[in-house]
Amino acid sequence: MRELFKGAIKFYEEDYNNEKNFFKSLQENKPHTLFITCVDSRIDPNRLTQSKPGELYVVRNIGNIIPPYSNSECGYLAVTSSIEYSICKLKVKNIIVCGHSNCGACAIVYENDKLDKMPYVKKWLELLEPTIEEVNNMQPEDKRKRTWLTELQNIQQQLHNLLSYPFVEERFNRGELNIYGWYYNITSGQVLNYNLIQREFKPIIGDKPLPN
Q: Where does this protein hold Zn(2+) (predicted)?
């Protein structure tokens, strides 16, 4: 904790005081992108996108999961209310669902003996059942490949879940909302982008045209 306290002091004395006008301009919350990702400590959305405070509206949970739409007002409100608020109130223009390599959630979901000791985690990861079913149909030959396939399939499933929300689908169909699925490889630093039309992941590299 000592280092975290020292970090807070350094932020105020250096970062804040050196960019005081910028931080004062953040009194209004006007992000352009909803960034949904895992709680994994190795993922830093702002550093990964080279964005500044105020640009990303970040939602994090174990496994970067988006519960499918339900007419009920009960359920996983922490996630669903954040998505609703960012789109309906803050009017974000983009949504990125970002999964990653070496994902603990995508590995432990197959280990019921460990999940039995973590009932809250087990309940949450029940939302991965459609992903698990798709991966099992692929019949991966080992655990490592199974985890990797789960990480990729999970991103696709969460995009599907995201588009099950009427207020998301309507804006997406009207061209008012851009939706992306990213896969971040922690070891290589490379980010793959999922093409919703071609249904495949491709590396984000500098010699290709980028979206506006």
A: 38, 40, 100, 103
